[in-house]
Amino acid sequence: MTATELLPIIALFSLVSVETSGFILLRFINANRKELGPAREQFFRAGHAHAGALLILSLVYFLYLDRTDWGGFLQWLFGIMLLVGLLALSGGFLVHMLYGAPERTTPGIILTRIGGPLIAAALIALAIGLIQAL
Q1: Residue 34 domain boundaries
Q2: Domain count of the chain?
Q3: Backbone dihedral angles phi then psi of residue 117, each to the nearest 5 degrees
Q4: Is there a contact between 130 and 64 (Cβ–Cβ < 8 Å)?
């Protein structure tokens, strides 16, 4: 099985988990809004929105990854880099929501800061791969 066959399946199952966890957390917000507070609610929304949008981006990414001339190793490397980056970025918001404090650097913020460059590197790599395949 190739990277462009397996990784989109992982992304689709991740998208279903994002939808399910969003439903559960939304029920929590509606029931306990005062306990959650405005800062945590914002981080929940940011994490959830980023997770959904970036997982959709990953599905498009894998379609184009197959158009490169790269062998299996590079496709696996950059595909996994993209998935790890998007899970780190969006997951960091959610970790900060659960364990963070306003205006402080926490493990969640660090995760988010790691995820962004990983996504950017994977996207730049794909652009280079597509240019090379012309």
Answers
A1: 3-132
A2: 1
A3: -65, -30
A4: yes
pTM assigned to the model: 0.88
pLDDT tier, 33 (very low <50, low <70, confident <90, very high otherwise): low
Which residues have CB under 8 Å from 35's CB, separation 6+? none
- Residue 72 is which amino acid? G
Which amino acid does the sequence have at 96? H
pLDDT of 56-113, one tens digit each?
A: 999 999 999 999 999 899 999 999 999 999 999 998 988 888 887 777 888 999 999 9
* Structural tokens at position 121: 């590197």
The DSSP annotation for 45-84 comes to HHHHHHHHHHHHHHHHHHHHHTTS---HHHHHHHHHHHHH
